[in-house]
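Rotation project, supervised by the postdoc (A.L.). Task for the rotation student: set up a whole-complex structure prediction and record inputs and outputs verbatim in this book. Inputs entered:
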Amino acid sequence: MNLLIGDSYGASHLREVVRGLSGVDEVGATQRAAMLGTRSIKTSSKAWAIDLAISMVDLTTLEGMDTPHKVRAMCAKAMRPDPTDHTAPPVAAVCVYGDMVKVARHEVGTAVHVAAVATAFPSGRASLDVKLLDTTNAVDAGADEIDMVIDRGAYLAGDYKKVYDEIVAIKAKCGAAHLKVILETGELRTLDNVRGASWLAMLAGADFIKTSTGKVTPAATPPVTLVMLEAVRDFASATGKHVGVKAAGGIRSSKDAIKYLVLVNETVGDNWLTPQLFRFGASTLLNDLLMQRQRLGAGHYSGPDYVTID
Amino acid sequence: MPFEYAPAPESRSVVNIKPQYGLFIDGDFVESSAGKFFPTINPASEETLSEVSHGDQDDVARAVAAARKAYDDVWSRMPGFERSKYVFRLARLLQERAREFAVLESLDNGKPIRESRDVDVPLAAAHFFYYAGWADKLEHAGFGPNPRPLGVAAQVIPWNFPLLMLAWKVAPALATGNTVVLKPAETTPLTALLFAELCQQADLPPGVVNIVTGDGSTGHHLVSSDGVDKVAFTGSTEVGRQIQRIVAGTDKRLTLELGGKGANIVFDDAPIDEVIEGIVNGIYFNQGHVCCAGSRLLLQESIFDEVTTRLKERLTRLRLGDPLDKNTDIGAINSAEQLRRIEQIAVSGDDEGAERWSSPCILPDRGFWYPPTLFTGVTQAHRIAREEIFGPVLSVLTFRTPDEAVEKANNTPYGLSAGVWTEKGSRILWMANRLRAGVVWANTFNKFDPASPFGGFGESGFGREGGVQGLLPYLRSEER
Amino acid sequence: MGSLRSDENRKRLAVNKTHKLFIAGAFPRSESGRSYEVFDSHHGFLANMAKASRKDARDAAVAARNAQRGWANATAYNRGQILYRMAELMEGRRSQFISEIRQCEGLNNHDAEVVVSASIDRLVWYAGWSDKLAQVIGNANAVAGPYFNFSLPEPTGVVATVAPESSSLLGLISVIAPTIVASNTIIVIASETRPVPAIALAEVIATSDVPAGVVNVLTGSPAEIMPWLASHADVNGIDLSGVADAQLAKELETEAAGTIKRIRRPSPDHDWFSDPGLGAIRSFLEIKTVWHPQGT
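Outputs recorded:
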């Protein structure tokens, strides 16, 4: 199989790529993910994992009611998550709509990355021209990372070429910005589709593959993330390129976040345990991580009034 | 940076192991007639956990007499519905004290707490729940209008799943109205003795369940006893053969659940990541101390390299060590004797020219350990492809066509389990039809459920445990 | 040679039949060349029977093994049709069977008719089971997980049977029919002293659609032949219906333990007229359980 990343492939070749992938048995994959969820991460491991998780958070606000002040508040939190404890690491990035990139960029400087959702997020139902312009605007406004959504309709209709070409085109507009490709796995539904879409995205040049927009339920789940981690592992062994994974939506507790880190560790290995290759797309998760961090430090449980709202 | 998992041991404080245990006869713990004890050790540390009574012929006779009396006076006369409630009680108590049983099982057996906690104990409780519900519905089981119990059941169980095998034996026997004398394995008596306490806690009538600990001689006395109507054994084919000979010519009903050399067959269109998990679960679950283990991996030749490479990568991630650590995947080998046996057969693999690969894990200094191991270059002619190893040792063979896969899978006197991995539905059913095995796992492996009958073809034994079929070995119905 | 009709008044010399074995659909003599005489209930000479040897038993085991896969792979409908066809052919030979039963069991005409009718009816009863066993003995199992799990009955394989000694036809049918309707193949050693109806039944089988090797009939001494079958590694089950001698039964069961054979041994005074139930069928069935995940 010819695997030249970003090449202009014909429809039949892409179909061959997707259909040539091994199937996923949903029950087996779900059980594997559940088993890894029983790993017991305690004491020093837990402290290490919590700090790592904080450093992997893409602190996110993607609301119609977002305002400059709201975004600024979030940016402040991103840079200094725990004002009472400066040893708490900053998060990986803030994630905002394109029109808020300038505000965010101004606020965070170079301390954390600015990620922008683009391509008619979250539905992606717009012409390619609109999506390209959306991307260009975000990059021009200073985004380090672009979170695009794939055309799920095209994928489900079997038009893999449309999905692929769109990603290639967006990637071309990203310039130096990293491209995260959202599969919206809650709409792809089957794990076979998740695997197929993961490969299309990686082949098209994705720097990250991301589970969800956060606007569709279910969002990130352990089995979906497992299959995506398997895909990046296999893609790395086929091409040498390390693609990151972002689990976004629905991850709210430290316990859950640590389960994802175990999933990464035991599926693709600790090379991926870095913000360069694994992210959490979340808003409320950060405060739970901070409360757990305080609990480990102080030896007693913390409460929501002892962490900041953003 | 490596993600080190800090030790996460389950607390031992939940169990209270007595320094010595008597035999459980007629509702009480009693001294053995000869007053002899033997130690039971923790195979992960070699520390002695307790001293357990050695039952001899007199003790067996006492237990059988108690079981007979309980059968005649109480248990066989009790309405099914009342019996049912006792068995439900046992099920519920097992759940209530699940943590205690799990920790004790891992201590005495060496299996990882993750397995005793998530598999052995919940399944044992589920077995009691399942059969409890049958006790008052036997006339609907399809064995005639008035199925009757047999009487006293002699039950001898192995060390690989001590509590679960107890449940497989005791639950259907009690539900059908039989009383039992159970002989736990020599190296793993403790959960059975804790179960005896559970019987007391449940106010089970004295003598309905009797537990006589001891060694092979104790088991021999039990199955030879004239006072038993039924013999149920789980263990090696060799011992099963001896028991069948002992029972020959008598009116005792016999069921045997014996050894296996299960084939796990992988086609090139199989879901590869789940295949790897299925192989691991098939042979490294419970250190390979599983009669239905997928100990022969039959790979379609075209995927040999891919599967073996991925499998080795996966095996290097298995965590071997303290059975009580919640993150342990591979625990201790149950006994020094079993470890020697595994080592011996594995060496025959080397001698016969197969290529050995072992996971590079560090083995603890004390206790009995064997690293997850696989052999490639194995043919049907190798000892490691024919004999049950009962350890974490996988033999990898190849095949070219579905016919050849079936032929190789069936080329064994055993017939307990088989696995088939393919995304093609019609091929699964074609294979399932042809495989000579009591359990066929398609796109999964080593799954168990009280509603699902389990048992072998050929030299893997006869009779079924689990499901409606699991009632029949304990019932007198229709003609023989 | 004169007219056959002209010999009417001369007493005719009967053509004595030497009965042969029935192995792999053919009627060979015993390879040992041995035969033995059997007598009617009044001790009068009845027939010469082939006296099977261990090698005949071995040949029968090979025949039964060779036939087993194909018999099991036939549709249940087809197996039922074949058993019913057997019954039809028996019905056509009613008078022969009645006469043989009268001779060897010493029954009067009425009682012999009752036996033959019961035998034919029993075969019809079993014929109807072929496509119902999976439904009655198999089932879907409600396991606690996302799996479809079902259990199906499968044949044990090759079964060696000692037919009841006294009930030479009804007893014989009652051990053959349940074994073969469950897709096993059988080596049956006929009643040692009353073997004639067994050979008549073999002739029925030979002319029906029962594939060669599915039923193999040996005559001779069970005590001599059966130990070889009880210890034979390619025999999967033994049926000791016709073994009344407790010591022999024990020896055979002990031999059978060598390869963990399934054993059926009804009470020696079993009433073959009684309702058979499913017990005999279950004796040589294995339950196979198949699991498959349910997922998308």
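Student's summary: Chain B touches chain C through 47 residues (CB under 8 Å).
Supervisor addendum: The mean pLDDT of chain B is 97.
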